[in-house]
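Technical annex, item 7. During the second reporting period the consortium partners agreed on a shared format for inverse folding records so that results from different sites could be compared directly. Each record opens with the tokenized structure and is followed by the designed sequence. A conforming record, contributed by the partner at site C, is shown below for reference.
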């Protein structure tokens, strides 16, 4: 069974910082297509409920389900970066990869009939443009290991903040 986790870098969004401005979508579509069109973006801003907004892009899964699902072998995963590469000559827009993606990070361009997936702006010298231009710095390149380390630090800080104030300090006399 494919894994939905990865050892590779991916773009992550901190929903506590994201304001749903969609600048990431506009910058992505302009970088990739030359037009400001959120439908052509490879990152999606998603409103989970009234107050929770986040952005989603390809998570560069190990043993990527999208690659495994493609009946035309039109998708390939770079073994060093995890970035999914599309072979335009083989892709027939069947959308099996769209269905296989656990994150909803793949779309089919209705004009070109090709799959579109975030490639972390690998052709841009300064990296992913969505990360660069996010006004709230809600987007960052990370790995699952970095995220796990952050979660552990946050949990320890939370425990410390909750428990330490409740421990009475003993007074000492000199």
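Designed sequence (site C submission):
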């Amino acid at each position: 069974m494919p894994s939905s986790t990865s050892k590779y870098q991916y773009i992550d969004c901190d929903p506590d910082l994201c304001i749903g401005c969609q600048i990431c979508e506009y910058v992505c579509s302009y970088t990739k297509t030359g037009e400001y069109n959120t439908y052509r973006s490879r990152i999606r801003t998603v409103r989970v409920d009234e107050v929770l907004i986040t952005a989603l892009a390809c998570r560069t899964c190990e043993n990527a389900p999208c690659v495994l699902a493609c009946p035309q072998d039109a998708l390939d995963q770079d073994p060093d970066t995890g970035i999914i590469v599309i072979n335009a000559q083989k892709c027939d827009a069947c959308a099996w990869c769209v269905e296989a993606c656990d994150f909803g990070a793949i779309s089919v361009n209705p004009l070109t009939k090709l799959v579109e997936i975030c490639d972390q702006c690998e052709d841009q010298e300064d990296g992913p443009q969505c990360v660069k231009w996010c006004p709230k710095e809600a987007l960052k390149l990370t790995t699952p290991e970095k995220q796990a380390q952050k979660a552990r630090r946050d949990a320890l800080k939370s425990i410390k903040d909750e428990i330490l104030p409740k421990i009475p300090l003993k007074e000492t006399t000199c």
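Residues 76 and 85 are 5 Å apart (CA to CA). The first strand starts at residue 10 and ends at 13. All partners now use this format for quarterly exchanges.
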